[in-house]
Design brief:
Layout (H helix, E strand, L loop, with lengths): L2 H56 L4 H6 L5 H15 L3 H13 L4 H15 L1 H12 L6 H28 L13 H21 L2 H22 L8 H9 L3 H15 L2 H6 L1 H6 L9 H10 L1 H10 L3 H24 L1 H15 L3 H19 L3
Length: 376
């Protein structure tokens, strides 16, 4: 046999024998990556629980600040949750703060529920920011900006009306703290896990500093948990299949529920629509039911936070908000979806019809919660 032919055969044999080793290596790398993500997710959850305990223990230190800005009653706390979520570009931290304050008794459940509603209003600001940046970079179209405006309009038209309904639900016996007592095993387990650290912090930090530390740990926990999530492929086969799957409102609604339940963040869940829309996988005119569902599914982690704090009052507050939002959302989806969607999309097109209109929209979006916060 010729030397060249022998060399080719040897090269082929080496390539064939290397394939199993490469496959094994890929499996080990995949397993290691999965284990790392699971550990990061566990660390994020543990930090989330610690943050809640810090905020609950230090909540009383926030009382003088709330008195200084005369925050008393539902409307100022609606503005506080709205403005805070808009500035942080996420509603989950403000929802956790509201639950902690209510669990500690620093605010009433009515004020806490208003703050929860406000957190929904500000939660989608990050989507608007991402869309605006992509628009400035001249990325093909203003679809990202359009989705951001639609997200804010959905929140405004569903979660502002949900506030009075939720306040009415709070008067119901179904949401009374006595009927929603957190099992003692959960409370004892949480106290056993976090008690020594919280006791040490209470002995060395002012209550206001302890609350601030809780907020800082909360933000870190969200960051760690976010890093633990696998990166969703917005260019692969699964993304391309969305074009056919998302033609029906119910399909988009279920997709919004599922994605938000996994990511535990409206900002991330709705934010995924921007690159998908820019690549043509999701039509911007079909995003309304997805956003409606995302704003519902996000309450799961807030309800878990209330349970971790061992507060029946906080659990009832979150359930009342969830029930109010679910009632309005499902009524719209089942009975009024077509006119509601057409009206909302037309309003979004009107907002983006000129720079002045868009500037006025943004100004109103920030001015309204500020005015509510300063309301006497």
């Amino acid at each position: 046999m010729e030397p060249d032919g022998l060399s080719e055969e040897l090269a082929i044999e080496r390539a064939i024998s290397a394939r199993p080793r490469a496959a094994v290596r890929r499996r080990w790398v995949g397993a290691a990556e999965t284990a790392t993500r699971l550990l990061a997710a566990g660390a994020g959850i543990l930090l989330f629980g610690l943050a809640l305990q810090f905020m609950k223990a230090g909540a009383a230190g926030l009382g003088p600040f709330l008195k200084a800005i005369s925050a008393e009653g539902a409307l100022p706390f609606l503005g506080l949750g709205w403005l805070g979520a808009a500035l942080l570009m996420s509603g989950s931290p403000l929802a956790a703060v509201a639950v902690s304050l209510a669990a500690a008794g620093t605010v009433s459940t009515f004020e806490g529920l208003a703050m929860l509603s406000g957190s929904r209003m500000g939660a989608s600001s990050s989507v608007l920011v991402v869309g605006f940046v992509l628009y400035l970079l001249r990325r093909r179209s203003a679809d990202g900006l359009f989705i951001g405006v639609v997200a804010l309009l959905v929140a405004s038209t569903l979660w502002l009306p949900a506030l009075p309904l939720g306040l009415a639900f709070l008067h119901s016996a179904w949401f009374h703290p006595d009927n929603l007592a957190v099992p003692g095993a959960i409370t004892e387990g949480v106290n056993g896990l976090y008690g020594p650290v919280v006791d040490w912090a209470q002995g060395h930090l002012h209550r206001l500093l302890l609350f601030a530390a809780g907020v800082a740990v909360l933000l870190v926990s969200f960051y760690v948990f976010d890093r633990a999530l696998p990166q969703l492929d917005t260019e692969g086969l699964a993304a391309r299949r969305l074009h056919a799957f998302t033609r029906r409102a119910w399909a988009m609604f279920l997709l919004g529920l599922g994605v938000t339940a996994v990511t535990m963040s409206v900002s991330i869940s709705v934010g995924l629509l921007v690159p998908l829309s820019l690549r043509g996988y999701v039509h911007r005119e079909r995003v309304v039911p997805y956003i409606m569902a995302a704003n519902l599914s996000t309450w799961v982690d807030t309800l878990a936070a209330a349970a971790l704090l061992g507060s029946g009052a906080a659990v009832g507050m979150v359930l009342a908000e969830m029930a109010a939002g679910a009632t309005l959302t499902l009524c719209v989806l089942l009975l009024l979806y077509r006119p509601y969607s057409r009206l909302l999309l037309a309003a979004a097109r009107g907002v983006l019809g000129g720079r002045v209109r868009f500037a006025l929209f943004l100004a109103a979006y920030l001015a309204v919660p500020l005015a509510l916060l300063l309301l006497r």
